[in-house]
Specification:
Helix content is 59%, strand content 7%. The protein has 415 residues and is of the alpha/beta class. A five-stranded parallel sheet has the order 2-3-4-1-5. The longest helix has 39 residues. The C terminus is likely disordered.
Amino acid sequence: MAKVQNPTTTTLGYALFATRWLQAPLYFGLVAAQGVYVYKFFKELWTLILMCVSGHATETYVMLAVLKLVDVVMIANLLIMVIVGGYETFVSRIGLQGHRDQPEWLSHVNSNVLKVKLATAIVGISSVHLLQMFVDVHHTSHHALLWGTVIHMAFIASAAILAYMSGPMVAHTDRAHADRSPAAPAPVSRPQEHERGDRQQEKPDPEAPAATPALPRQTDADADAEARIRAAGFPARKLLEDFDEQHPRGFDREAVARLGKADFVTARRNVVFVGPPGTGKTHLAVALGVRACQAGHRVLFATAAEWAARLADAQAAGRLDAELTALDDHPLLIVDEVGYTPLDPATAGLFFQLVAHRYERASLIVTSDRPLGRWDEVFGPSAPALTDRLAHHADVVRLDGDSYRTRHATSAWAD
């Protein structure tokens, strides 16, 4: 029996969480402050132009005036990072994923990254102020120069310490997530276990048209990505670069290339690969999963039969809701081979709960040998509601062609 939450506690939690919107006016206030800096910039620029035209501008004056303009621009940049990054991190997602004008840092902003970038920006502003003091050294006291240098070094030291601490903090967060939730699907029945073991030992992957060499050893920046790839439970490591694009008679190459950027995970969109057996569906699903791991997302892979066993075990133990909530720690789940194993109505209902729970909350990649219109053959009465939620925010990629394995087996027999 599912755990029943206390309504009072739930209401209080939602109320406290909603208080984050109290910060929204603060960010609009910073927008107004940015307008003040725009006015100040053009006022300083106009004054500089007038002084140059009138011939009263010395070289030192021009240098100091330009440094003032640079200072204003850098502070405006700092405001932009606080406004956009802070609002995205602490209030609500802005939802510009995939937009060509999206700043590079916004796609992976979080509180730690934001702190480091702000500290770096402050060091830059401090550098400009210190340079102004040294340029105008004849009008600056030694006491002011000394304290200006000390304060600047303090900013540098604090930024370096903050950058150093952000790495262990992120690693600790990943380890805590790994401890809270299982890293691989629950055990399945012996026949399924034996079947999957055979599949892993085969040299050609069941759904992969091309053999994939192991990735080269990765360094510090990619160590966490490697850990996520190992924890995902992939049957084998596959890369988009190794996919044999000449084998399928037809598929949307541009869509696959776009999905390879892993933006669909951040946007909470789904991907459905549909096609006959052996056309490369599993290869593409695993390859996108690897890309998602490299982009910083936790991924979990299992066949439809294995997901069915996992959800059924959770329901039998009275912890289905807890299991679905635990899976939220993985922004991407991959469900392979939908339609290969018939599902009874109860199991179909469990799949519907999984899809409904992740609807507009997290992403799914699903591979199937039949189009969505025929999923009633697999899920029965649950199919319309399930496919409606799955396909609402989804890229459906159709692969046409003969089985890669059958073709190579035929060629080997001919030889």
